[in-house]
From TrEMBL:
Taxonomic superkingdom: Bacteria
A Pfam family hit: DUF6519
InterPro entries given in the database record: DUF6519 (IPR045392), Pectin_lyas_fold (IPR012334), Pectin_lyase_fold/virulence (IPR011050)
Stretches with biased composition (Low complexity): 699-723
UniProt-recorded name of the protein: DUF6519 domain-containing protein
Region described as Disordered: spans on this chain: 677-730
Length: 996
């Protein structure tokens, strides 16, 4: 609130640099205050020019959510409007130490903009008693100013910062506020002018009326504030002495307060019919035991009654009956105003009948709390110059408010999680700008091209690429809206920015950056978001497109980037897609002599980055990896409820098709009739022969026996056992038709909520897998499907699929059991990515996937080669060297994820190590499908090690399908020191010290 001032002389429009004291002259407090204001404002403007309107150097004020504190702003530093703010500890939005009188938060459904509101507030010695000088006998001296921090939530319909910011500016303007994006300062769309009015008409003809002017006897600074406004009418508060006199008080009874210190004189004692304001404590300064508090800027306005309302002996102040006193565990404050007045916008109103002062306020709206406090103006009047006002500009025209001075900074766009029992939030977009200290900001010093979001950057960039052989580009902090794909072709490129503070937004694009045949690409400290994902038959967009797409670039280094790709119901896009050319088809003669190095080398490194993968999309896709190092990255698909309704399924072909697999899986229709023709007899004989061969070949490949239990502590140690090999003769590396793999392991369907459904129609036997809750429902539905003993296999097949399709497209035509089952599927549909990290194509020479975290995917890490179109079929393509180590993979299985699912998949490989990974399954309700933690299949080379992995809650832990039933001599295939909560199927691998 205000301090006791004689006048406010600082005027930024004058452009003064300093205050110069002169000898023998009187120095007033206005001179000292103006000197301080000149210096602080110069520093503030300079800081904005260096840092920008808002930014953090240490990742401060990051918004997150936890179940204990709710939404929280992290500790750290934030610059807003040139001021430095700091949190020593994380601050919950619901329990802010600088906002103890925080009003109840209005319930927000959906999205909200989390923001930091900064307000400059004056602190007096009444609040902070440390400002008193006891050597002077107790009087206060100078006051202080402080920046008060409030974390607010503002409703929005947007999910990204740029759109939310644009809508915020429009909404604020409709509420009487203007937000300056260059300084982040909030300015009030209200003005005030001062005028005089003559005194009352004299009834004595010998005493003509005096000229209008200030009629007071004291030098005064008048404060006028708007306390309420609606329509075109409002109420103002006004007071002498800048309304600075403030007293602590204790509540004695329902309408009696006791001032804890006596007023300094009678003039500053509460008077009959005077207006006072009762304020709560908004902040505790220092330690609670010191009892130093900050008063709230606004409170309860009370007009005192007539007669004796203040007793100097007891220091008790009697309030009108019916007054509601605020409760506060610390203390309440009483501020002295002079009076109130009703006003109409644009019309002059007298402050009272004696002062000679009138004001004209023009405004359209009063900003609502807690976004802003009431606007106020301060002007000085002097009795010896009654026709003057200081500053003079108040007489010359309408003036903007002197305060409160406020600044607003966006922190994040958040969304309330639908269906949560308690209020929970997820972070949709981080709005903070990041910057490096000058000693660390070396990345942009060598940039030949520096781009700013405040210019036509796309045109500047296009002109720079026209004749360049190499470009070093620095994107300054801010949001860059890309209307078309930014394509770099055949030039060396280095792009850097300010981390999350530099956002390249392709709202309508699937590919934001594309690099074609570039000798080198360096991309760091930048955020890229693609807003579209979909199928296109354009030949130029073969394969999944990435928000960042790289084609045939020899040296690629991507580090500390944030990449977002959009949701889609079909796997159509990725965050990063890297396509290197495949070796010539003539070199692919068999699985063992693929060229380790082509004529050109393609080296890829993706490090320490964050990928926010859209629903059903892919995080990192690398096709034909020459050398690829993918390390230290975080790939996340947030578990957002998809809110699919039954009525949505009719038009959603892809989703319905996937969900239908929960009803029908592994269907077979077999004729049990004896063969009658020679052709049928031969076919039956061939089936029996093939079945016998498969049974004999796979007989030794039953699940491994449990390992020997540990010996008791007092038992004698045994000799080290020899690892047992399969009791089948070795089979050399297989090719072509000799390539055989073991049968799939048995899965207990009951463990995943599945069951067999069988039915017979004459000589036809139907068998399929469905939910264990639908066995009787299927039996009844098939009985009513007009199938009989003469039905053909095609008719049975069609009837089964028609029943399943009707469950999604015509629910009223199927049994309630189907409708209930599908209705229970829909609330279990959460956003889940299709794949995390994928190495594909026809060649992978040296692949290292290290220390990544992949959260919320159906396939965590997938390394598998194939090229069936380009070359004739071979026994299986092999990667050369693969290392998958130290990764954390959280697989999310929902009813929609019915394709291949696994934590880590490795196809044919010459040499591989899969070690020290943590793979965990989160299975949603009704997600009944078998799923493997680590799956190794195909043609295996001399060394394949699966060691020290942890696998939790999967159908199978390790599952191996090798090309031969026993490792050839000189080969090392081993699974050791792994822990799994389910059975391992290790085939021909050596097995030691696994659990179970």
């Amino acid at each position: 609130m205000g301090s006791d001032l004689a006048r406010i002389s600082f005027d930024p429009s004058r452009g003064y640099r300093s205050v110069v004291a002169q000898q023998g002259r009187v120095t007033l407090e206005a001179d000292v205050n103006e000197e301080s204001a000149i210096a602080s404002e110069a520093l503030r403007v300079e800081t904005i020019e260096v840092v920008g309107p808002a930014g953090t150097p240490d990742d401060g004020y990051k918004v997150s959510w936890n179940a204990t504190d709710g939404l929280v702003a992290s500790k750290g530093t934030m610059y807003v409007g040139g001021w430095r703010l700091h949190n020593d500890q994380p601050v919950p939005f619901s329990n802010q130490p600088e906002w103890l009188d925080q009003p109840q938060q209005t319930t927000i459904q959906g999205n909200a903009l989390a923001a930091l509101l900064v307000t400059e507030q004056s602190i007096s010695a009444t609040e902070d008693q440390a400002l008193r000088e006891v050597a002077l006998g107790g009087p206060d001296t100078s006051a202080r100013t402080r920046l008060m921090q409030h974390l607010v939530l503002l409703p929005t319909t947007d999910s990204d910062c740029a759109a939310a910011e644009a809508d915020l500016e429009k909404n604020l303007q409709s509420k009487g506020l203007l937000l300056d994006p260059a300084t982040r300062e909030l300015k009030y769309a209200a003005t005030l002018g001062v005028s005089f009015f003559p005194p009352k008409q004299s009834t004595n003809p010998c005493c003509p009326p005096a000229q209008g002017g200030y009629l007071g006897s004291d030098n005064q600074l008048v404060r006028v504030a708007v306390s309420s406004f609606s329509g075109n009418h409002g109420t103002l508060l006004w007071g002498w002495n800048n309304a600075s006199f403030l007293y602590r008080a204790k509540v004695v009874s329902s309408n009696v307060l006791k001032l804890t210190q006596a007023p300094i004189d009678a003039a500053h004692t509460p008077q009959p019919k005077q207006v006072i304001e009762i304020l709560r404590t908004t902040m505790v300064l220092g330690k609670a035991a010191e009892q130093n508090y900050v008063a709230a800027p606004d409170g309860t306005i009370v007009t005192l009654g007539a007669g004796t309302i203040y007793d100097p002996a007891s220091q008790q102040l009697t309030l009108p009956s019916g007054t509601t006193l605020p409760s506060d565990t610390h203390t309440v404050f009483v501020r002295l105003w002079q009076g109130t007045a009703s006003f109409t916008s644009g019309t002059a109103v007298q402050l009272d009948s004696d002062s000679g002062l009138a004001v004209t306020i023009k405004m359209a709206a009063l900003p609502p709390a807690p976004l802003a406090s009431r606007p106020y103006w301060c002007f000085a009047v002097r009795p010896n110059t009654p026709q003057s006002v200081y500053p003079q500009r108040y007489l010359e025209g309408q003036q903007l408010p002197d305060g409160p001075r406020q600044w607003l900074c966006d922190l994040a766009v958040v969304q309330q999680v639908a269906g949560a029992a308690a209020a929970s939030w997820q972070i949709l977009d981080d709005c903070r700008n990041h910057f490096k200290p000058l000693i660390d900001a070396g990345d942009c010093t060598c940039c030949e091209l520096t781009l700013s979001p405040n210019e036509d950057w796309a045109t500047v960039l296009k002109a720079a690429m026209a004749n360049a052989k190499a470009l070093s580009i620095c994107f300054q902090p801010g949001a860059y809206k890309a209307n078309s794909t930014i394509v770099f072709s055949r030039i060396g490129v280095k792009i850097t920015g300010a981390g999350a503070g530099t956002q390249i937004l392709g709202t309508s694009l699937e590919v934001v950056f594309e690099f074609d045949n570039c000798p080198n690409v360096v991309l760091s400290d930048i955020a890229v978001a693609a807003g579209a994902a979909g199928f296109s038959n354009n030949a130029a967009t073969v394969g999944l497109q990435g928000a960042i797409t790289i084609r045939a670039c020899e040296q690629v280094d991507i580090e500390r980037v944030i990449v977002v790709c959009a949701d889609a119901d079909l796997r159509a896009a990725s965050c990063i897609a890297v396509y290197n050319p495949a070796p010539a088809a003539t070199t692919l003669t068999n699985a063992v002599d693929l060229p380790r190095f082509a004529q050109r080398h393609y080296n890829l490194r993706i490090l320490n980055s964050e990928f926010r993968v859209g629903h059903f999309q892919v995080g990192i896709l690398v096709v034909n990896a020459d050398r690829a190092q993918i390390e230290g990255n975080y790939l996340i698909t947030a578990p957002i409820l998809r809110n699919i309704k039954y009525s949505d399924l009719r038009d959603n072909v892809y989703l319905s098709s996937r969900l239908k697999k929960q009803l029908i899986h592994g269907m077979s229709i077999i004729s049990t009739a004896p063969a009658t023709t020679t052709r049928d007899k031969r076919r039956l004989l061939r089936k029996k022969t093939d079945a016998a061969t498969t049974t004999q070949a796979n007989a030794p490949l039953s699940a491994p026996a449990p390992e020997k239990a540990a010996l008791p502590a007092n038992a004698a140690p045994e000799a080290a056992p020899q690892e047992k090999q399969a009791d089948v003769a070795p089979n050399a590396q297989a090719t072509g038709a000799q390539f055989q793999i073991s049968a799939l392991p048995h899965v207990n369907l009951g463990d995943v909520g599945r069951a067999h459904v069988t039915a017979s129609f004459g000589n036809l036997k139907l068998q399929m897998i469905s939910s264990d809750k639908l066995t009787n429902v299927w039996t009844d539905a098939l009985r009513k499907a007009n199938l009989n003993e003469s039905s053909t296999a095609g008719q049975v097949h069609t009837a089964v699929h028609q029943i399943a399709e009707a469950a999604f497209k015509a629910p009223d035509s199927v049994a309630p059991g189907f409708r209930n089952y599908v209705s229970n599927l829909l609330p279990a549909l959460y956003s889940t990515s299709s794949q995390g990290i994928v190495i594909a194509g026809s060649v992978a020479n040296d692949v290292r996937i290290l220390n990544n975290t992949i959260d919320g995917t159906a396939q965590g890490i997938h390394v598998g080669l194939s090229n069936r179109k380009a070359v004739p079929y071979v026994s299986g393509l092999q990667a050369s060297v693969v290392q998958i180590s130290g990764n954390t993979v959280i697989v999310r299985l929902t009813p929609e994820m019915t394709g291949d699912r696994h934590g880590i998949f490795l196809g044919g490989v010459e040499s591989a190590v899969i070690n020290d990974n943590h793979v965990e399954l989160i299975r949603g309700a009704n997600a009944g499908q078998d799923i493997y933690a680590i799956k190794v299949i195909g043609v295996l080379g001399r060394r394949v090690l699966v060691e020290r992995n942890a696998m939790l809650r999967f159908t199978l832990g390790i599952f191996v399908q090798a090309n031969t039933r026993q490792a050839p001599a000189g080969y090392l295939w081993k699974a050791a020191d792994n822990v799994s909560t389910s059975t391992n199927w290790t085939g021909p691998f050596r097995v030691t010290d696994n659990v179970p």
